[in-house]
Amino acid sequence: MDGEDVIIVTVVRLLRKLESMNVSYDSQFDLLYLQFDDAATSVRNEDAGDGVVLDITPDGRLAGIEILDASRVMDLGRLFPIEYERSGSPA
Q: pTM higher than 0.70, yes or no?
């Protein structure tokens, strides 16, 4: 099992227990952020490769996922019907 499979399994397990998730997109930096733990005050960033950065809490929980160059790696329009907050200046 390579690292990519581990990330997918971890996220699937997290989403099953998830009560809410915030999704935000910053068009200025083309950054998509999935926030699972809005109470996390301290996180460490772990590079998962391919422009994905994981935010990990001190106790090892996944607090969020940053996707860099998001519009290049995914169709942002497919996020719907999820509503997401758009920040930054218009493209």
A: no
Q: What's the token pair of residue 47? A: 């590079």
Contact 32, 88 (CB under 8 A): no
Q: Which helix (H) or strand (E) element contains residue 62?
A: strand 62-68
User: What tokens appear for 19 in the block?
Assistant: 């009560």
For residue range 23-55, what is the model confidence (pLDDT) as tens digits?
888 888 999 898 887 788 899 999 999 999 999
Name the β-bridge partners of 45. Answer: 55
Instruction: Locate the DSSP E strands across 1-83.
Output: 22-26, 31-35, 44-49, 52-56, 62-68
**Residue 76 · residue 32 · CB < 8 Å:** yes
